[in-house]
Amino acid sequence: MRIKDRTFVISGGASGLGLATVRNLHAHGGYIAILDLNAENGNKVVSELGDRTAFFEADVSSPPSVSSAVSTLVEWIKQTKKPIGGVIPAAGVGFPGKLIDRHNEPIPLENLELVLNINLRGVLDLIRLCLPHMTTTTPTEPDGERGVIIMVSSSAAYDGQPGQVAYAASKGAGCFDRTELLRERYDVGDESEGQEEFGGGL
Ligand SMILES: NC(=O)c1ccc[n+]([C@@H]2O[C@H](COP(=O)([O-])OP(=O)(O)OC[C@H]3O[C@@H](n4cnc5c(N)ncnc54)[C@H](O)[C@@H]3O)[C@@H](O)[C@H]2O)c1
């Protein structure tokens, strides 16, 4: 995967694993489009790294927000002339809760939806909107690669802890999606671990 002079779209890039990925790809010469809910942190990262980074405020659980951010970042790419080389949908939340609490009350459905909409639908939404801009680039390497998608899963996909039912479901589904994306002939990596190394919140 060539990094230099290609743009990488990273959701959740204002903190933790996403931010560590931003720093790494930037250090290797990549252009970075950070999508995140947290504008304060996102803008701080851009001020620190400077050139070759841009911040696009977005809530990945809101389809109009993702769509608007992708349209804006595509305009940025037209200016920089550095094609999309990868999508890393790293924005994710834990929001733990058991299906019934100690008073036998079911968890509010909104709590489950929040996690699934960010960790699963938001991931697929970002990939789907970026893909048309990746598949139309001109390959620069002999293998014809036009870009990569790196899914961010978790050990919870295989061995969730009590209270992680929605989180584990979202991360397990991410692993399944990886197989489907491969069948559709996209090149997909899977980041399932790396806890603590990047100081993430989850
Ligand atoms: N921390 C870990 O040990 C660990 C382990 C395995 C997998 N992961 C995965 O790594 C990813 C990042 O985790 P982290 O620990 O670095 O978390 P973090 O809380 O440090 O960072 C998450 C980032 O996502 C952003 N975000 C949250 N909701 C959003 C939304 N709706 N729209 C846009 N941005 C949003 C936050 O503002 C934040 O910048 C997650 O997908 C998580 O499941 C983390």
TrEMBL record:
Keywords: Oxidoreductase. InterPro entries: NAD(P)-bd_dom_sf (IPR036291), SDR_fam (IPR002347). The keyword Oxidoreductase applies. It comes from the Eukaryota. Coiled coil: none annotated. Pfam families: adh_short. One of its GO terms (molecular function) is oxidoreductase activity. PANTHER family: 17-BETA-HYDROXYSTEROID DEHYDROGENASE 14-RELATED (PTHR43658:SF8), SHORT-CHAIN DEHYDROGENASE/REDUCTASE (PTHR43658). This is 3-hydroxyacyl-CoA dehydrogenase type-2.
